[in-house]
């Protein structure tokens, strides 16, 4: 269930920067950080991505990389 919620949230980016669809590998890269820092965030409207971005200094290297690559596109 948690994976479905995160998947839906990541696909509903709030800004044009994160409006792209993320691959399964990209979502998997941030799952641990989501559970650690953003589990209480209500999915939708890009809120989870925004939460992860606010925690960027604490994110795992793989998740940081995914968010940085998504921002470039």
TrEMBL record:
InterPro entries to which the protein is assigned, alphabetical: Cys-rich_GLG1_repeat
Protein name: Cysteine rich repeat-containing protein
Annotated signal sequence range: 1-19
Pfam annotation, one family: Cys_rich_FGFR
GO CC, one annotated term: membrane
Keywords for this protein: Signal
Organism of derivation: Bradyrhizobium brasilense
């Amino acid at each position: 269930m948690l994976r479905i919620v995160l998947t839906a949230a990541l696909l509903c980016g709030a800004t044009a920067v994160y409006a792209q669809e993320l691959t399964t590998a990209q979502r998997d890269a941030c799952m641990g950080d989501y559970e650690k820092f953003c589990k209480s965030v209500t999915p939708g409207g890009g809120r989870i991505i925004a939460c992860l971005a606010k925690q960027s200094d604490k994110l795992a290297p793989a998740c940081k990389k995914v968010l940085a690559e998504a921002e470039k596109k």
